[in-house]
Every structure is written in C-alpha cells, then in structure tokens.
Amino acid sequence: MTRIHPTAIVEEGVTLGDLTSVWDNVHIRRGASIGRECIVGEKSYIAYDVQIGNRVKINAFVYICAAVEIEDGVAISAGTVFTNDRFPRATTDDLSELRTSDPDEHTLSTRVRSGATIGANATIGPGITVGRWAMVGMGSVVTRSVPDHHLVVGNPARSVGAVCRCGAVLLRFNAVDAGVATQVKCNVCGHVYSIMGGRVAQLVEVS
Fold first, then answer.
1. DSSP state of 144
2. For residue 35, is it within any domain?
3. Is 175 helix (H, G, I), strand (E, B) or coil?
4. In the chain, what is the greatest distance between 2 CA atoms, to the nearest angstrom?
5. Which of 60, 114, 156, 172 could hold 71 in an S-S bridge, CB 3.0 to 4.6 Å?
6. CA–CA gap between residue 66 and residue 108 (Å, rounded)
7. What is the Cα–Cα distance from 190 to 179, expressed in whole angstroms?
8. Would 153 be classed as within a structural domain?
9. How far apart are alpha carbons 94 and 137 in whole angstroms?
10. What total number of domains does the chain contain?
11. Is the four-CA dihedral 11, 101, 110, 135 of positive or negative sign?
12. Nearest-5° angle of CA 120, CA 122, CA 128?
C-alpha cells in the first residue's frame, strides 16, 4: 500500500511501488516511476519521466530534474539539486521566444548507481554518473562522474578517499601509493577491498 499525503501533487501517468510514502507538498510530474519501499520527503520535486528504483530515500527539498535515473538503495539528502543542461538559457538567442522546460537536444542524462549517498545541499551536474556505493559530501558541487566507492567533497568535488558499502571510510587516497595495490578491511563491517589507481573493488562478501 502506498501512502500519499493529501497536499502532495501526483500527476497522471506516475507509477508508485508498494509501500512507498510521498510526504507533504511533494510534486511528482507525469511519467515518473518510483519503485517499492521508497520515501519522498516533504516539498521535493520529481520531474517528468524520472526513473527511481526500490528502497530509495529522498529527503526534504530535493529537486530531481528530467533525464535523471536513480537506482536501488540510493540516499539523497535534504536540499540536493540535480541539473540537466550545461548552458541553460531562458529564451532563444534572439530573445523572441521563451524556451520550453521540456527535455530537448540540450538535455543531458544523469545516473546515480545502486547504494550511493548524496549529502545535504549537494549540486549534481548534468551528464554524469555517480557510481555504486559512492558518497558525495554535503555541499559538494559534482561536475564529473564519480567512480564506485569513492568519497568526493568540495567545489568542484574531488575524490579524497574510498568508502565501504556500510558507509565507513576505508582510507584516504593521499595515504597510499596510487600505483600499488592495497588491500583494506572495513573496521566496521569486515568487507575487504582491493584499491589500486583509484579503482575500488570488493574482494570478500561478509555472510
């Protein structure tokens, strides 16, 4: 059973999975699809045809524009803003016509892979991918793709370390030789990873 707050606007053609909750003053545009067991926090906006997987947590005041895909298990913290146009203009170049907000040839797609976390008040640039289990620090401005398991912070966001599936920081990149394979075990959950040249690969699953 889905739960939709009476102040929320859910347009025709929206698909909501079972046990998903949509809270107050949310606006979800036509064609958007949201999976099972998701939470859409208050006053968030989800544009037309946005695709969202299962068990995704979207906090308050989040803006998700068209051409964004969010995979399973992603956490999007309060105040996050997605963008889809590198060179936006309000009008045509002769100022004679207002440009539509519908996706067009200038629209670039963005993908957030499974398990990733985006911190509060982050801005996500267009045409990029945020990798699996990556973590974007609060207030970061992400202008290029983020590899799996990377921790990125700043404006523009830079990779500063590696994070475990559980969210714990595995190491800081400035503490290891980028050309030498390093094996790291998470002190919190016990997952083991190989890290070399910025590539983070999980080696052992904890049962």
1. S
2. yes
3. helix
4. 63
5. 114
6. 9
7. 24
8. yes
9. 40
10. 1
11. negative
12. 135
Give the domain CATH number at 144: 2.160.10.10
181 HSE (CA, 13 A, CB side)? 7
Which tens digits make up the pLDDT trace of 156-190? Answer: 999 999 999 999 999 999 876 666 788 999 999 99
What confidence tens digit (pLDDT) does each residue in 69-119 have? 999 999 999 999 999 999 999 998 999 999 888 888 889 999 999 999 999
In a domain, 177, yes or no: no
Whats the size of the chain, residue-wise?
207
pLDDT(206) > 60: no
CA distances for 162 relative to 14, 184, 186, angstroms: 36, 10, 11
Question: Does the pLDDT at position 207 exceed 60?
Answer: no
Cα(149)–Cα(165) distance, integer angstroms: 8
